[in-house]
């Protein structure tokens, strides 16, 4: 049986709210009606998705798996609708996502010259939302920093980008030009240590100010840099982003002993729009190995 996307969307709301009552309010429907839709989805899948007890509404193992798959699936369904509507317009629309530290103006200018039939738009993204922009169709193609989820995108590697560490300007090491990752062991890394596999130092047990939610790392780069400026720890980022986030109370040092981040171009798999391949080839020629 094919999945009912409407019921999947209801399921995600309940999973995110951990409550049928709050999810029903969010979806502007009654709680009994929502419960019936979730039961129907469970019957379709022949599984139990939620456990209900005094602690609230908890996901089962099957529920966790569905939630992991459902979010990108809903985003891609939204992207399909958007692209179909765009295709119905007389002028073809082509949206390019870019991030701080990756200069794309010459490429976009050259692409516009060779593809005059396109209405080209350039949209700012960040490391934290680059996948979302690709999945939900807000951009057709996006400059990204790897890694990306495997199996979902066509990826064109362009160039490796060294990384820097952000320290408070008041830190004793801030006067140096470079530092090795081992020299930072006594500091706290203000991000998920999976972002820096070489890290062997401390990570925060409690949220870094100004965050209030317990048990999570700072989400945005701006939040991380606030923690750095206050002396709470350090933050590792691609070198190209340092100039974009320049501030007097933060110093950026070249970080040795860590692998660079690969800058790449990405777009959703299985798309046949010929301009995607044209733009990818242009990016490879102007930014890839051997580019001027």
Please outline the helices and strands.
Blueprint: H1 5-17, H2 20-27, H3 31-45, E1 50-53, E2 56-59, H4 61-87, E3 92-98, H5 105-114, E4 118-124, H6 130-135, E5 141-145, E6 153-161, E7 163-168, E8 178-180, H7 221-229, E9 235-238, H8 239-242, E10 250-256, E11 261-268, H9 274-287
Parallel strand pairs: 3-4, 3-5, 8-10
Antiparallel strand pairs: 1-2, 5-11, 6-11, 7-9, 7-10
Helix pairs in contact: 1-2, 1-3, 1-4, 2-3
Structure, described:
It holds the Pfam family HTH_1. This is LysR family transcriptional regulator. One of its GO terms (molecular function) is DNA binding. Residues 1-60 form the HTH lysR-type domain. By secondary structure, this protein is of the alpha/beta class. It folds into three domains: 5-73, Winged helix-like DNA-binding domain superfamily/Winged helix DNA-binding domain (Arc Repressor Mutant, subunit A), CATH 1.10.10.10; 89-159 and 261-287, 3-Layer(aba) Sandwich (D-Maltodextrin-Binding Protein, domain 2), CATH 3.40.190.10; 163-256, Periplasmic binding protein-like II (D-Maltodextrin-Binding Protein, domain 2), CATH 3.40.190. It is 36% helix and 22% strand. The chain has helices at 5-17, 20-27, 31-45, 61-87, 105-114, 130-135, 221-229, 239-242, 274-287; strands at residues 50-53, 56-59, 92-98, 118-124, 141-145, 153-161, 163-168, 178-180, 235-238, 250-256, 261-268. The strands form three sheets. It has a five-stranded mixed sheet. It has a four-stranded mixed sheet with strand order 8-10-7-9. Helix 1 crosses helix 2 (20-27). It is flat and about 60 Å long.
């Amino acid at each position: 049986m094919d999945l009912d996307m409407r019921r999947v969307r209801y399921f995600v709301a309940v999973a995110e709210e951990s409550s049928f009552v709050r999810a029903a309010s969010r979806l502007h429907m009654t709680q009994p009606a929502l419960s019936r839709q979730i039961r129907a989805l469970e019957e379709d899948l022949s599984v139990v998705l939620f456990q209900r007890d005094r602690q609230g509404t908890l996901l089962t193992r099957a529920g966790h798996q569905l939630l992991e798959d459902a979010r990108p699936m809903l985003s891609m369904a939204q992207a399909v609708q958007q692209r179909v509507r765009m295709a119905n317009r007389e002028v073809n629309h082509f949206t390019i996502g870019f991030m701080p530290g990756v200069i794309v103006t010459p490429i976009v200018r050259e692409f516009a010259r060779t593809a005059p039939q396109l209405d080209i738009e350039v949209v700012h993204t960040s490391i934290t939302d680059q996948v979302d922009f690709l999945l939900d169709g807000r951009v057709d193609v996006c400059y990204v920093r790897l890694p990306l989820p495997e199996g979902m995108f066509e990826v064109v590697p362009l160039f490796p980008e060294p990384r820097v560490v952000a320290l408070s300007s008041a830190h004793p090491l801030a006067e140096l030009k470079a530092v090795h990752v081992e020299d930072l062991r006594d500091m706290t890394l203000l991000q998920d240590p999976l972002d820096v596999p070489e890290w062997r130092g401390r990570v925060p047990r409690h949220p870094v100010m100004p965050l209030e939610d317990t048990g999570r790392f700072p989400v945005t780069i701006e939040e991380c840099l606030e923690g750095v400026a206050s002396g709470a720890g350090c933050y590792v980022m691609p070198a190209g982003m340092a100039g974009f986030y320049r501030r007097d109370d933060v110093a950026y040092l070249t970080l040795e002993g860590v692998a660079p981040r690969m800058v790449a171009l990405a777009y959703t798999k299985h798309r046949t729009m010929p301009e995607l391949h044209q733009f990818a080839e242009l990016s490879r020629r102007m930014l890839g190995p051997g580019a001027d």
